[in-house]
Amino acid sequence: xxxxxxLICWLLFSLLLMSTSLWAQQPAISAVTPAATQVExxxxxxxxVTATATYFNPYxxxxxxxxATFTSPTGVVATVDGFYLQNYQIxxxxxxxxxxxxxxxxxxxxxxxxxxxxxxxxxxTDANGTGTFAAQTFTCNAASGDQNQGFVRxxxxxxxxxxxxxxxxxxxxxxxxxxxxxYVSYNNWVTKLSNNGGNFFRLWQCAWGLGIEWRNxxxxxxxxxxxxxxxxxxxxxxxxxxxxxxxMLCLQHHGQVSSQVNPNWSxxxxxxxxxxxxxxxxxxxxxxAARAATKNRLRYVVxxxxxxxxxxxxxxxxxxxxxxxxxxHQNEVAAWHQEMATxxxxxxxxxxxxxxxxxxxxxxxxxWMMPEIDLTQTHYYxxxxxxxxxxxxGVKTYLExxxxxxxxxxxxxxxxxxxxxxxxxxxxxxxxxIWGSIFSGGMGSAALWWWDNYIEPRNLYPVYxxxxxxxxxxxxxxxxxxxANSYVLGASSDLIITPGQGWGxxxxxxxxxxxxxxxxxxxxxxxxxxxxSQWNTEYRRPPVFTLNYALPGAFKVRTxxxxxxxxxxxxxxxxxxxxxxxxTINTTFTIQVPAGAHTIKVDNTGTDWVTIASYTFTGSxxxxxxxxxxxGDGQKVSAWVLNNxxxxxxxxxxxxxxxxxxxxxxxxxxxxGNYFANWxxxxxxxxxxxxxxxxxxxxxxxxxxxxQWDLALVVDGTAVNIEKIPAELxxxxxxxxxxxxxxxxxFELEQAGTITWEVIxxxxxxxxxxxxxxxxxxxxxxxxxxxxNLPAGFYWVKITxxxxxxxxxxxxxx
Length: 814
Known about the structure:
Layout: H1 4-23, E1 28-34, E2 38-40, E3 45-52, E4 65-71, E5 77-81, E6 83-85, E7 88-92, E8 97-100, E9 105-110, E10 116-126, E11 129-132, E12 136-141, E13 152-153, E14 160-162, E15 167-168, E16 172-174, H2 182-195, E17 200-204, E18 215-216, E19 219-220, H3 227-243, E20 246-250, H4 288-305, E21 311-315, H5 330-347, E22 353-355, H6 365-368, E23 376-381, H7 387-402, E24 406-412, H8 420-423, H9 428-438, H10 451-458, H11 465-470, E25 482-484, E26 487-489, E27 492-497, E28 510-513, E29 519-520, E30 529-530, E31 544-549, E32 553-563, E33 568-573, E34 576-582, E35 588-593, E36 596-604, E37 610-622, E38 624-630, E39 637-643, H12 648-654, E40 664-668, E41 673-681, E42 687-695, E43 699-703, E44 710-716, E45 727-728, E46 731-734, E47 743-749, E48 753-761, E49 766-775, E50 778-784, E51 793-801, E52 804-812
Parallel strand pairs: 2-12, 16-17, 17-20, 20-21, 21-22, 23-24, 28-31, 45-52
Antiparallel strand pairs: 1-3, 3-9, 4-5, 4-10, 6-9, 7-8, 10-11, 10-12, 13-14, 14-15, 18-19, 25-38, 26-40, 27-37, 28-29, 30-37, 31-36, 32-35, 32-37, 33-34, 33-36, 38-39, 39-44, 40-43, 41-42, 41-44, 46-47, 47-50, 48-49, 48-51, 51-52
Helix pairs in contact: 2-3, 4-5, 7-9
C-alpha cells in the first residue's frame, strides 16, 4: 500500500500531465455566428467566433490569430484578419455613456463587393497549430441608399472616385478629437457637417481622443487595445457611412515620438523608461520590436475597421518631421513609411488609400513618390489676409512635383487658434480657403484645423452648402481637370503677393512681374521666412523683383506674426538701399517707387529670421484673383473669381470692399470653338447667367459680372440643367448701409408663388427666416424693421422662389 505522500505526488503528477496535454491542444472553434445572412454590397458582414486557444494576450497576433477567407460568387478569394473585442452599447444618448454587452470574444468583419452568395471559412492559429470551422454562406444584395457608393479609389487622376465610378470631392475640416464624450461630440459635429453638405473630416487616434494603444488613463500598454475607444469608432464609422461622410484616419501623431514638439514621449509605451524597447525617440522607426508592435496595431485597425467604406484613407503619421532630430533620421523615417505602407496594403483587402503628412513644406519627396503613398497633403498656417493664395500655391506645387491627388490637410491663420473669433468672426478666410484650394486643383477643400473653438461655436458649417451644390455639376475627374493659367484684366489694383514656402525650403531669388500682375516663378517658390545674415544662413534667399510701374507708386513689405532674434528689413531700389529698419512683427515697411522699370530687392540684414505676410506693389495688380481648371482636352474650364479685397482683414478694418466691375477673365490654352458660359453666385448658389461664348486664339476671354465677393464659372459645350440649379432672382436692398432705418428688399417674380427668405450673419447663422409669404407676379417688396437692432456688421438677405434664388449683402452701421 502506497503512503499518503506518494499518492499525493502521483495525483499532482497526473494533473500536470493532463494540463500539459490540454495546453498543447490546437485551437478549437465551436461556433461562428453571423450577425445577419443578408448583407448589402459594400455593407458590413460580421460574425462572432466562439473558440478555445492558448494565449495570454488576445490582441497579440503572434499569440493567437483569427482569419477568415471569403470566396465571392465569381470565385474571387479575399482574406481578412479577425480581432478580439469587448462589445458595448450606448446606454444613454444624452451623455454617450457605455455599458458592456456580453463577454469579450473574437470577431471577423468583411465588406462584400459582389452580389450573390458568398462562402467563408474561419480559422484560428496559436503556438500549437490551427483549427478551422466548416464553411458557411451569406447573401450579398445590391447596394441601397444614396450614401452607399462603395469605397473611395484613386485611379490615375488628380481626383478620387467611388467604386460605382462617381467622383468624390472631399468637403470638410479636421475633427481630430472629441470635447468630452466621443458619442456626443461626433454625433453633433458630423450631423451639422453633413446637413450642410460636408462629406469629409480628419480624425486622430491620439491618447486624449480615440487612441487605442498607450499607457495610463485607461490604456494598458503595447499590444493591448482600449476597448471603449474602439467601440466609439465602431459606432462612428457606421454613422459616417449612413451620412455619406468619409474619414482620413491618422494612426500616429508626431507628439508620440517627440520630446520637444507637443511632447508625449515620456508617456509612450515604446519608451524604455516605461518598459518599452526604444532608448531614443528615433529608435521607434528602426527598432525591430517597435516596428513589429506597430504592425500588430495596424493589423488590428484593418481587421476591425477595414470593412468600413467611410474610411477614405489611412494616414500613417501626422507631421512626422516634428519627431526628434528628424533631419538626421530622415532616411530612416522614409524607410519606415515604405515598410508600413507596404504592410498595410498587404493586409487590407479593400485597398484603402494611404497617405502621411509633414508640417509646412518640409516634405520628403522620397516618401511622396512611393507608389504605396496614394495622395499627398500640405499643412499651412499663415497669418495673412489672403490665405487662399498660400493654399492654392501649395496645391499646384504638389501636383506638379508628385503627380498625385493632393489636399490641404490642415490650415489656419495661427498655430495657436487663439483669437480667431475676433480676428475673423465671419469665417471669410474659411470660405476663401475652401474655394481657392478646390479651384487650384486640390482633390477636395482645404481642411481648417480649428473645429472645436471656431467652426462649432461660430456655427460656420453653412460655409460648405454652396460649394457642395456646385461641385456635382463639375466633372473634375471625368474631364481630367488640372490647374490652368488665368488672370483678371481691367480691374486695376495693388498687387499683393503672399509667400507660400515654409521653413527650411530653398526659395527662388529672382521674380518677374508682368503687366497683368502675374509673378514668375509662382509665389509658391517665395519663402514666408526672410532669413538673417548670421543664423540659418544656409536658407538665405533674398528675393529680387523685376517689374514696371505704369505710374509712380510704392512698394511695401509687411511682416508676419513671428520673428527670431533682432532681424532687420532692408529694401533696395535699382541697387540703392532706401530702407533698413528693425523688423518688428505685423509691421509695414514702405519705399516710394517712381514710374518705369525697376528691380526691388528685399533682405534681412539682422541676426535671425522674420516671417513675411505680404509684398505689395501699388497699382501693379488686379482687384480680381482667378483660380482656373481646364479639362485634359482643353474644351472645359471651371474657374473661381475673387474680389481679393474681400478678405478678413480688409472687411474688419473697412467694411464691405468696392464691387469689382469692368473686369475680364482671361484663360489661355482653351481650344477654339463655341461654348456656353455659366456664372454662379458663391453665396446663394444661384445661377446668374447662361450665355454662348466663342473662344478664339486658343484663349478664353470673358467679361466678368460685378463681383461683390466671389463668383464661379463653368464653361463647356452643353446647356446648363436649370432644373437642378436655381437661376438668379433680381433683388435690390435699400437703404444700404442702414443705421436706425427699416431695410426694404425689392424683388421681381415671374409668376405667383410662395417665397422663403433668410437674414444671414457672415458666420453662417440664420438670424431669422420665413417661408409663408405668397406674392403675385411682378415687383414685390419685403421690409425688415428689426434688422436695425443688429450689431454693426455685414449681413446677407437670401430669397428663394421656386427655381430662382438671390442673395444681397447689407451693412449695419452704428
